[in-house]
Amino acid sequence: MLSSWPILSIVTFLPLIGVLFILLASGNNKSSEHNCKMLAIWVSSFTFIVSLILYFGFDTTMAGYQFEEQVEWIAGSGISYHLGVDGISMPFILLSTFLTPLSILASWHSIKNRVREFMIAFLVLETMMVGMFASLDMMMFYLFFEGVLIPMFLIIGIWGGPRRVYAAFKFFLYTLAGSVLMLVGIMVMYLQAGTTDIPVLSDFNFPPELQYWLFIGFFASFAVKVPMWPVHTWLPDAHVEAPTAGSMILAGVLLKMGGYGFIRFSLPMFPDASVYFAPFIFVLSVVAIIYTSLVALAQSDMKKLIAYSSVAHMGFVTIGIFTLNEQGITGAMFQMISHGLVSAALFFCVGIVYDRLHTREIDAYGGVADVMPNYAVFFMIMMLASVGLPGTSGFVGEILVLVGAYKASSLVAFFAATGLVLGATYMLWLYRRVVFGRAEKGEVIRMPVLNNREITILVPLTIFIVWFGIYPAPLLDVLNPVVALISEAVSNTQMATANLQ
Amino acid sequence: MLYQAIVFLPLLGAAVAGLLSVRQQHWPAEIVTVVGVCASFLLSCFAFYHVALLHNPVTLDVARWINSADFVANWSFRFDTLTAVMLIVVTSVSSCVHIYSIGYMHHDKARARFMSYLSLFTFSMLMLVTSDNLLQLFFGWEGVGVASYLLIGFWYHKPSAHKAAMKAFIVNRVGDFGFALGIFVIFYLFGSIEFDDIFSNASDFSNTSIVFLGFELPALEVAAILLFIGAMGKSAQLGLHTWLPDAMEGPTPVSALIHAATMVTAGVFLVCRLSPVIEYAPFALDVITVVGALTAIFAATIGMTQFDIKRVIAYSTCSQLGYMFFAAGVSAYPAAMFHLTTHAFFKALLFLGAGSVIHALSDEQDLRNMGGIWRKIPITYSLMWIGSLALAGFPFFAGYYSKDMILEAAWASHSFTGQMAFWLGCAAALLTAFYSWRLLIMAFHGKPRCSAEVFEHVHESPPIMILPLIPLAFGAIFAGWFGYQSFVGYDMSYFWGDSLFILPEHHAMEEAHHVAEWVKRLPVILAASGVGLAIIAYLIIPSLPARVVSMARPIHTLFFNKWFFDELYDLLFVRASVRFGRFLWVKGDKQTIDAFGPDGLSGLVLNGSNKLSKLQSGYVYHYAFAMMIGVVMLLSWYFSGFGR
Q: In this model, does residue B590 exceed pLDDT 80?
């Protein structure tokens, strides 16, 4: 019965209904602000619950698209309203719907002006994110993909820190510059294939020379989103200026758009180019891992440090994807989901102490364990997950990526594995400076312990991080069939090219 | 079920104690963890009986863990003789340490948390030794690393403590880097990381070569050496040893359990566990022998000169681990495991005894401020004697059997590296006896050098800290005699079964029983002379050490400063990487990427949009503007004729 419902459309557009209600709630007084918050949290929580249908109704034996909906958009144009999920996109949709209510809850008190608009921006953001992952049509994908930028741009630009305008523009320019090239690519593909339907395009054999150019066009867009070195410098600025909730979603979901794009478009549509460019991407990723890890060591701003660590972690993702083998791609997917949870949690951890002390300077803290013991425990778990400790979700992704990388090239695995050491260094050092020691500064001593709202946010994140570390099967079962399909398709092309030569 | 309970009872204890620690309920936490670990010990005895004595090795599949195509790692357990021996060592020492901690940590406000960490460590260690595949072993491996990190940094107020904790974790990570790569090589070769698959196919790959980092190298050598790098990190072997002495910043029970008896021996366990692979890697075996032998002598030279009672014992541990490794390196795995077992008992005894001394002297750790207290704490004193006699290898004490076995095996291996290990091991035996008695004399004899107030206060530890030492003392006295026949004697091959593998052409183990008489006697003679030297230097002519030091100033400086490893690493890695990171950030990110990229561009756009925003303001407008640029570019490109 449920299968006849347009679940994906519902999940995508439910938040917009919330927006409608918020718009209806008039007045600018305190109570209406509170109502807006309550509306936003209820709508996004409900969206999450509905989106669970996607997980529990998901057929893990199938590699293809499920929950498909298709309506012709412009007659005869080959452009349609086409939604559907497979093992690649479904986890991302759940990640988005899971993190949105948590982020809204995280900004409960820290957002003080224009609360209504903030909640609207967040719900629109959710629609855009879910829509992007659910789209099976290039045009729709592009609209959502670009659409995500607007609310995030506003969140940074309006509710951000002192240098928010600079950060917002940097974020915007970088990502837009990439997107324009992708739009060109989409146009070319449409002219070639006569459709923008993603499943059709995935099976369409583009001539290799064209593939190279298309790959570059898409790469420009995705590499910025990931972000890959050297187009990563927007990320630290964006994170530093963004409000806590913005950082959580930015690191949690928006960074995954690039990785998702690579797996959804680059590998199946441009397999020859993917094989051709893989070494180039390995180099960029390895540089990213080592370079940004070292840069993270030099940071004195907590958010910047974690932002740089994100770049390093995403370096593992891009390596995993372009190993083109099953372990690598599965690992990359897993790493993205895990990083989505862990980095959101880490940014929230920073937000917690920022709310209390209004500074992100590491040196301003020290001895937090004394005054906030529970916080120290949660922060420790997140820190260890970020370091990739076995038993946390961070390990599963990292180890699979490295296994895949070793298959592709021992050199890549060797340099990527240095991330194990470097990652531990900057995270442990951060933790040591913030949490350990004796609380001596007056402001630190007066910091209140975690409140229930903060614990409510941290507990579910912790549960999933540990659960996926100990029993990742629920996620791996979803990933394995479709990853097998993708890597098989790529390796077939690889062999075909080898035979031709 | 019983077998799983061995592993999971301590975890349960840790979880419950962790929750209790939030509410500051110390007694329940102590009881829960002690009961959990002691129950685990009793079950381990049962497992030992069934697995090792009755020869019923068991493997248990519990649940799925990570699977992706042909890469499969399950939660599964393997109970064979090797595991059973480790189970006994880990759970028995852990039980003693748990009970001892109740007394030792009595004044600490966070002792529930401490007990929770101890049990968490025990769980991780048990996961490590019971694992049936490399990845789960890695889980335990990292788990003990984290527990060690938490426990070293337990007194997180002390900067030296959390610095040491971080150092331990990161130096171990360097080893784990090798370990992880080793796992990848193994998987690449065997297509599996399950021990059964690896062990049964190892011989097929003895002549295979792989390309590693661009070099074509023998496959198993590469795998073995990479995994050994992991072992070096965990077992504090030369080069990756720097964390162990600093780890003494943790509470003393931690040093006894983790940094003497169990965790640091994980590397030796790993090498023994992988004997079916390493046996086919002769070069790796040589490397292991050399590293082990060098560590044995190197750590002993430092141990001689240190004044912190715990650091002396820490370097001694480092040195003894070196013995175990070179035993493994000459294919005398049973001897390595034998020494591992006896060492666990007498070293834990020594550490806990040292803890009693520290406790008695109101937290004084410096040997220079001790002395003259032996009459006041006679039980601790005699227990320290037992530990030292066992460590020095005096006849009929535990260390005598195991250390002599190792040296004899090294001699009997007839290889160059084996001979070298033998001579270095003998020299280290002399030094071992010397620094052990130096410690005993400085701590207990002579005139009291502590303040009168402290001296007044010196008292024997409460029964709860003495009782756990008794079984350890029994182990230190009788473990060698008791285990000799099974571990390394005539029942050896029957006892170990398939859990250790030695190629038929590697016969150091058999020949060790037939070496010349002088080879057997030499270590004892050296140990006795070491004791004699210490007595002369520190009891009879107390001015002698100072004179020797001033005579051999450069050598003493080198030894006393731990061969300057810390300074070297600090210069080469720690400061260099932070400085390099800052360089990349400022010169790379800010002055190159940003300056030429977005800042230049955004300057242009900001200027442009500022002018435009005079017409209309608002961020959405900016977006539209930028979007327009895109559309215009696209259209002009489209109409320029492409695709027609």
A: no
Predicted confidence (pLDDT) at residue A501 exceeds the cutoff of 60: no
- What is the pLDDT at residue B626? 58
CA–CA min distance A501, chain B (Å): 24
Q: What is the dihedral of CA B104, B105, B107, B110, to 10 degrees?
A: 180
Phi/psi at B191 (5° precision): 70, 20
Structure-block tokens of residue B484: 């000799």
Q: H helices of A194-299, where?
A: 198-203, 208-225, 234-241, 244-249, 256-261, 267-269, 271-297
Strand, coil or helix: A136: coil
β-bridge mates for residue B71, sequence order: B68
Name the band, by pLDDT with cuts 50, 70 and 90, for residue B512.
confident
| Cross-chain residue pair A373–B22, CB shorter than 8 Å | yes
Cβ atoms < 10 Å from Cβ of B202: 23
pLDDT band for position B602 (cuts 50, 70, 90): low
Q: What is the mean pLDDT of residues A106-120?
A: 84
pTM for this entry: 0.91
DSSP state of A252: I
| Dist. CA A246–CA B441, nearest whole Å | 64
Count the domains in chain A.
1
Q: Find the distance separating the first CA and the last CA of chain A, reported in whole Å.
A: 52
pLDDT, residue B624, reads 53
pLDDT in tens, A253-269: 999 999 999 999 999 89
Range of the domain at A148: 2-500
pLDDT of residue A312: 93
Torsion of CA B181, B186, B187, B189, to 10 degrees: 120
Which of B8, B66, B123 should be substituted to probe chain A, the one whose Cβ sees the most A Cβ atoms within 10 Å?
Answer: B66
Percent of chain B topping pLDDT 70: 92
Residues β-bridged to residue B64: B74
pLDDT in tens, A355-395: 888 888 888 888 888 888 899 999 999 999 999 999 999 99
Spatial contact of A340 and A406, defined as CB atoms under 8 Å apart: no
In angstroms, the separation between the Cα of residue A388 and the nearest Cα of chain B is: 10
pLDDT surpassing 80 at residue B532: yes
What pLDDT was estimated at residue B616?
Answer: 46
> How far apart are the C-alpha atoms of B320 and B329, rounded to whole Å?
14
| Mutation for testing the B interface, residue in A436, A440, A471 having most B CBs under 10 Å | A436
| Interchain CB distance below 8 Å, A420 and B185 | no
- Which DSSP helix (H) or strand (E) runs through B188? helix B159-190
Residues B82, B58 contacting (CB under 8 angstroms): no
> Which chain A residues are within 8 Å of B183, Cβ to Cβ?
403
Query: Which residues neighbour B512 within 8 Å (Cβ) at sequence distance 6 or greater?
Result: B332, B335, B405, B408, B409, B411, B412, B488
Give the pLDDT mean for A322-331: 92
Residue contact B585–A421, C-beta within 8 A: no
- Cα–Cα nearest to B184, from A170, A413, A60: A413
Q: What pLDDT was estimated at residue B406?
A: 92
Q: What is the CA radius of gyration of chain B?
A: 29
Question: Cβ separation of B166 and A184 shorter than 8 Å?
Answer: no
Token pair of B374 as six digits: 């032996």
B598 contacts A174? CB cut-off 8 A? yes
Could you tell me if A439 and A365 are in contact, meaning their C-beta atoms sit under 8 angstroms apart? no
The mean pLDDT value of chain B amounts to 87
What is the model's pLDDT at position B489? 84
- DSSP class per residue in B76-102: EEEE-HHHHHHHHHHHHHHHHHHHHHH
Q: How far apart are CA A315 and CA A334, in angstroms?
A: 13
Is B29:B116 a contact under the CB 8 Å cutoff?
A: yes
